[in-house]
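Deliverable D2.4 — example input (structure tokens):
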């Protein structure tokens, strides 16, 4: 046995102990709870907006150690190495430019991936092929075909996968989904998934909108990767890549893995998807614009069980967050609050809103007399990943869940792009009777990159 992963190293220790006549249970007094043999070694790939926060959460867990970091921007990479080594007070964390070299390292058990959407599939599949467990960001990938390839690789290589859809690890979202799942609002009829409008200048680079040579610190050729080569414009690189369809999917795909993920949790739809998607309206800037993703959008999905789901930006008549409406009531939940039709399911709380203190509602944790079926509860999203790496049990957001949570967003975008209703077979995962729409399930890869 090659003791390369935390779990296989633990098994290896047990086997070795047995072979030389020791008891097979190694007492924690010998190796200690956090001895290297018990520690999950991890690497971070992508050190931009999300990578550092995810990594900080992992570094706060004593049974995990970040031993390597990878980025295509030398400044980001340097900052990552310094941050990690400072936290541990050593120089053990090593930098890496090409993720393929990092994935080939045998001393790394798991990876945290926070790269732009154009890279999700290739980096994840390389990790999985090399036996790494993966904490990967949402949306699962830039296209449905790429998502299918990731799901297949997780299953083929029998790896643990956690998606960065961390809302599932928050009490408010879980309690809201539990109320719905336990039938307190009756039979669900309508679901609203409200997402942001427009574009948000996360990097403060909106005015850096001219074509220039790429800066020396960035490997721009590789950063573009399997997407189409385009001239370098700073305003569409770090953080703001999501506003250009070449790399990302706009607000719709940036957020679908959060609020549709919660919607599906309440609907018990983690393994399925809509059967139809109808485009209502979208404002697409010209394709040639620097930021060309839809600023307003609204599409309506039908599920086989009769539920209608509206997926829309806040400006198109829905409230940010997830709202389920049923025959006996409704529940709404978002990062900013909670509300519902029944006063017994909520309590009044005070919250800070900028400089003001405002009154709002919080979800009430209900007793076992009304909540018969509890949903998966974690001790933290990153913590849950580490627990599952050890136990080999599914995480709270495994790859199949992430796949299904993002599919409605991809289908909404496709229907808005072709501007007609599309039919979807959620079991076969095919668009029915519309070859042109079907082509949008994948995007052409720029060579030499290939989707396995
Ligand atoms: N879960 C959440 O709440 C949340 C929040 C923000 C972003 N995200 C997700 O995190 C991912 C990253 O988004 P971001 O906003 O941090 O992007 P970003 O542009 O800020 O950072 C991405 C980093 O990845 C690096 N990179 C690009 N290609 C790479 C490659 N092939 N190998 C190594 N490094 C590479 C870039 O140089 C950059 O430093 C996206 O999928 C995004 O949707 C999730």
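Example output (designed residues):
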């Amino acid at each position: 046995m090659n003791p390369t992963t935390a779990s296989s190293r633990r098994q290896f220790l047990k086997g070795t102990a047995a072979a030389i006549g020791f008891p097979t249970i190694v007492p924690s007094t010998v190796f200690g709870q956090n001895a290297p043999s018990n520690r999950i070694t991890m690497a971070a790939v992508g050190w931009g907006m999300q990578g550092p926060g995810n990594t900080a959460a992992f570094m706060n867990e004593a049974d995990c150690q970040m031993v390597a970091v990878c980025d295509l921007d030398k400044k980001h990479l340097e900052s990552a190495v310094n941050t990690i080594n400072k936290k541990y007070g050593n120089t053990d964390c090593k930098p890496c430019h090409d993720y393929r070299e990092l994935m080939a390292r045998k001393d790394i058990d798991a990876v945290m991936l926070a790269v732009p959407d154009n890279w999700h599939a290739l980096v994840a599949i390389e990790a999985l092929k090399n036996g790494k467990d993966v904490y990967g960001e949402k949306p699962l990938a830039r296209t449905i075909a790429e998502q299918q390839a990731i799901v297949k690789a997780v299953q083929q290589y029998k790896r643990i996968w956690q998606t960065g859809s961390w809302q599932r690890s928050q009490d408010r979202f879980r309690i809201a989904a539990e109320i719905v799942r336990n039938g307190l609002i009756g039979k669900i009829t309508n679901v609203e998934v409200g997402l942001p409008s427009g574009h948000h200048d996360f990097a403060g680079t909106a005015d850096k909108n001219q074509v220039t040579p790429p800066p020396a610190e960035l490997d721009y050729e590789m950063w573009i990767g399997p997407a189409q080569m385009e001239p370098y414009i700073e305003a569409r690189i770090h953080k703001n890549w999501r506003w250009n369809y070449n790399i990302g999917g706009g607000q719709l795909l940036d957020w679908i893995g959060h609020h549709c993920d919660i919607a599906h949790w309440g609907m018990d739809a983690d393994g399925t998807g809509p059967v139809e998607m109808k485009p209502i309206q979208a404002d697409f800037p010209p394709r040639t614009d620097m930021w060309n993703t839809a600023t307003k959008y609204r599409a309506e999905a039908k599920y086989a069980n009769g539920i209608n789901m509206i997926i829309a930006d806040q400006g198109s008549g829905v409230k940010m967050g997830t709202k389920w409406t049923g025959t006996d009531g409704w529940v709404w939940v978002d990062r900013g609050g909670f509300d519902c039709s029944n006063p017994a399911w909520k309590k009044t709380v005070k919250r800070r809103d900028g400089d003001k203190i405002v009154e709002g509602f919080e979800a009430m944790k209900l007793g076992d007399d009304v909540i018969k079926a509890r949903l998966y509860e974690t001790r933290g999203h990153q913590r849950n990943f580490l627990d599952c790496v050890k136990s080999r049990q599914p995480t709270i957001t495994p790859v199949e869940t992430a796949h299904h949570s993002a599919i409605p967003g991809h289908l909404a975008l496709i229907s808005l792009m072709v501007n007609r209703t599309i039919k979807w077979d959620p079991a076969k995962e095919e668009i029915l009777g519309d070859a042109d729409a079907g082509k949008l399930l994948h995007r052409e890869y720029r060579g030499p990159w290939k989707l396995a």
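The first strand starts at residue 40 and ends at 45.
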